[in-house]
Sequence to fold (470 residues):
Amino acid sequence: MRPPEALIFDVFGTLVDWRGGIARAVATAFATKGLGVDAEGFADAWRAEYQPAMEGVRTGARGYVPLDELHRENLVRVLSIRGVDAFRPAEITQLARAWERLDPWPDVRPGLKALKSQLIIAPCSNGSIALMTRLARHAGLVWDCVLGADIAHDYKPTPAVYRAACDALRLPPSAVMMVAAHNDDLAAARAVGLRTGFVARPYEYGSGQRSDLAPAAEWDIVVDDLPELAGRLVS
Amino acid sequence: MRPPEALIFDVFGTLVDWRGGIARAVATAFATKGLGVDAEGFADAWRAEYQPAMEGVRTGARGYVPLDELHRENLVRVLSIRGVDAFRPAEITQLARAWERLDPWPDVRPGLKALKSQLIIAPCSNGSIALMTRLARHAGLVWDCVLGADIAHDYKPTPAVYRAACDALRLPPSAVMMVAAHNDDLAAARAVGLRTGFVARPYEYGSGQRSDLAPAAEWDIVVDDLPELAGRLVS
Fold:
């Protein structure tokens, strides 16, 4: 198999530990108000609003809104459901930006560096260019460029997002591999003609995770971490 | 003056020596056909088609076409005007991609590295994401993300291109500085509210250059090279 010319990556869960990072930011924010919180439960509740919020854009019920704004709207909703009114608007905005300061899984920095030595690497996330740019600076992700939702003005797994990433690189989908820890992301990419790389992240949702523990189809490459992916694709 | 949060850069001429790189590629291509050529004159003629080609997009006479395609069209035109029919279509495509393999001015790599330590840095070029991505890999430009014409589907100095760059970073124009060796680029950026940094590139057009030898207005910062810019903006 000829290696792809470019790898595009899912980010939240695949490269960075959103649950741990958000839980820490939530715990800190609540502590400054003298409030207790089940921080991981709060992180899960916040993330649970993610797909429904994007669905409004995917269906056309509302125009494209960057994920930064959806994250803030979703945070307002979760706080409201829980009856928490201790935070001022500027504090809510600041907490919503915790998505810009998530830590990478330990294998990610060395893995991306090795892959970049021979292949174009870019995020293809539902995060905006602004969000991906700041997250990359925090987490040390050495992207060649930033692709994803902002380029397409739509959200994965809508086919247009994967197509827009290939078009922006001026590559046919067959020369691009989508790398993700989520089977549905890879299925959508494959449907558009991209190659697929599954990297297992069995602790994305903590020790009780039950989804995406294993590949659900015969993806082109299945690995446990990014250095293993580099070992397969980089000579 | 508070430093900007992000710097966006013109690329051709400001960061990379397009004239020297294109002349070398042209000389090599003609030599393989046993043909002589005034390589720098050819590079100038090719570049002279640049503004007229983009003007069609800026006026709306044609839809957005990435610069990669305009470069190829312009090359075909220059070859035709000179009566050169020695190149096959695939060879013309390959030569047109010489814009992906231009070398940076000597101060650019250390300067960008120093600036990136504290500020977001991105190209805001008329080159496409694909072109900027490959050029950055060739020239060692360590961007945080790639902005510019592709984001706006329009060409500088149209105001929408500078606005789209700020919007993609979720920053007000006053927090973004446009850095360029061309006074008209800075004037257009300032008109939209961006800050402005002039870096002198008196040899962009060779030793006989007559334009952009000095700042034509009171730009916010005027420097001779990027390390000097870093010295002014990074603590």
